[in-house]
Amino acid sequence: MNKIQKIVFLLFSLSLMMIGNKVKAQYDLGIYSLRLVPQTNLSNPAFMPGYKYHFGFPALSSVYAGLGNSGARYNQIFTKTGDSLSLDTKSILKNIKNGNNVNFRIANQWLNAGMRWRKFYFSLSASDIIDVNSFYSKSIVSLAIEGNAAHVGETIDAKPLELKALHYREYALGAAYDFNDRWNFGIKAKLLFGKTAINSEKSNLSLTTTNDYYYLNVKSDVLINTSVPGAKKDSTAVGIGEYMFYGSNFGMGLDLGATFKLNSEWNFSASVLDLGYISYDRWLKSYSSKADFTYKGIGFNQFDGLNEAQSKALLQHIRDSIVDLFQINESVNKFVVPLTAKIYLGASYQLSDKETLGALVRVELFKGILRPSFTASYYRQLNTHFGVTANYSIINRSYLNLGLGFVANFEPLQVYFVTDNLYGIAFADQTRYANFHFGINFIIPNNTTRRTMIKL
Questions:
Q1: What's the whole-model pTM score?
Q2: Is 420 helix (H, G, I), strand (E, B) or coil?
Q3: Domain segments of the chain: what residues?
């Protein structure tokens, strides 16, 4: 094979790995190719920046936000008529699948710094992370829209029905080691402090519509654990200082990574991130429901002759009655939430001194569900100051995600920006995925690596 054939084969092979999978929302894929940026070690702790020191601009060294949805897009959910919006139920049912997810992530590094010492590169950071992941089934949406008359004699299993919403502080210390001319290894240890958590530990729910009278038989076995400020015993409000800096809800995490240089052209990398957990022991409240009942519905003639206040009161009574049927119990229990583990597998091919092609497979493990994605990238160093990247990703059952990014180095100042879907930023209502990542660093290169590409 010639060079171009090797590249095509690599990208085609990795693409085939993704076909037929339920591709879900993934985050921060494009920055993997911006190796001049120290924050690439967020995806692989073995990456070694070509600098003697780097310091992140406080609160602006790494700012990330991303939103993903594998079901119906915003413009498929709502129809605009004049100045008003209305639900398009037919479009919703048409554009959702058996398993759908909605998730978003916001991550901000308050502090970030690193230094090279002999064959090591040490880094440390402090970050706040908001990570929300949820799954829902098409059957439960269909029941809500069509009613149970369309499902007579059927048993609807609400699975997958999952939720994990976390806000936590992360203090990380990393070390990358230049083992030899071919291998680099990296490790990053993290101390975690949970701020807020809502986690579905059990979410078993089935609904059966009977053949006679269309009654609804419901079985539930649900447990949702929460740690939310405001659940204090003395009922006093939680101040922002206490929320942000109190050291409860302790956890630990670990990132592992390696890179391998096959020759002057081919480089490979692998990493496993967020192996760990957070144990919650403050602001606790758990909600459980283990019930088996038949719901006979309501008659609309109950509202005949009632005024607005009476109708509202009756509606509230009906809601309370349904809640009572589910036998929801509240308790205070400590609980543990595992982090959402991630695997990165990457390969790059050096086309020239200034150009690199790359391919990346990323897999997330969320409550036993694998969520893969694929990205192909092209990086070019335009001159001593500017580098640009373009990437293509398969994300969220969508095959048209084109991203762009750049890094600008004017020593000691570095500015970078990258997105996995440029169209999604401009027209978020028409896409299933949108994200961006930018930051500002101060860089002090070694004399031997000044204004050069970093060592992979």
A1: 0.84
A2: coil
A3: 3-292+332-357+426-445
